[in-house]
Amino acid sequence: MKQPFLLAIMVSAICVIAGCAGLQKDVATQPAAPEVVTIGGGDAALTEVIIPVKETFEEENPVRLVTVQSQPGTELASLASGSLGAVVSTISLDSFLERAAESGTVWDRKMFREVPVGTNETVVFLNQGVKIKKLTKKQLKGIFTGKITNWKKVGGPNRRIVVVWSPADDGENEAFIEKVLEGEEVVPKFVSVANVEEMRAKVLEIPGAVGIGPSVMVSRGVRVPGSLEVASSVVLITKGEPSPHVQKLLALIKDVAFLN
């Protein structure tokens, strides 16, 4: 009776060992999780430069590219801490350094590198009901500062103007305020949105709405009048020299720009 019992135990042990070996083999053959590179910055710059190449970059590299809209004023600290691998923005490195110094934080410029990666073209978005073919710089300034409150004043329908604005996208806003509003503040009462996707949706939804966004966000249903376009250079900023993955990203951005 003992021999069959011992034989059963041995068979069971062999099965357990074989099972463990098979499990180890399965674990060993599983592909490693891809590395993650996090790119922060303004919504417009991310939309214009990073989003168009994200899918191709991830197909060509074992890397997951994550984009996050940075909280204004935190960009250099996030780069320095390593929580961001790079920042793309229409704001230059020198401007970031100046802003930080004004807030009491002084960074050594030698810590960072800046590479131009493209251009962001800001256009005006109108609700479909606002059938206006062209808006001058003077008219845009009046609309976005609140001096003009009805579309009738600029050749449109007798409807109240509703400004849609994304406070978080300070890079694009800064260029528009400087070049179109000539330094004046945007109207204090506006519909606040978190990003350009939400801005476009609100402009489509709200009668009499107007907003600004990158030209790549133009889609069916949004009217873009013949108006002054605001072009801003987009830069990519890293702590020290760009990492190998970021260098590959830069090469891809350059290739796409060349093809276009």
From TrEMBL:
One Pfam family per UniProt: PBP_like_2
PROSITE patterns the UniProt entry points to: PROKAR_LIPOPROTEIN
InterPro entries the UniProt entry points to: PBP_domain (IPR024370), Phosphate_ABC_transporter (IPR050811)
Keyword match Signal: yes
Signal peptide extent: 1-18
Assigned keywords, A-Z: Signal
Highest taxon above the source species: Bacteria
Domain PBP: residue ranges: 30-189
Annotated Gene3D superfamilies: Periplasmic binding protein-like II
Protein name according to UniProt: Substrate-binding domain-containing protein
Classification of source organism: Bacteria, Pseudomonadati, Thermodesulfobacteriota, Desulfuromonadia, Geobacterales
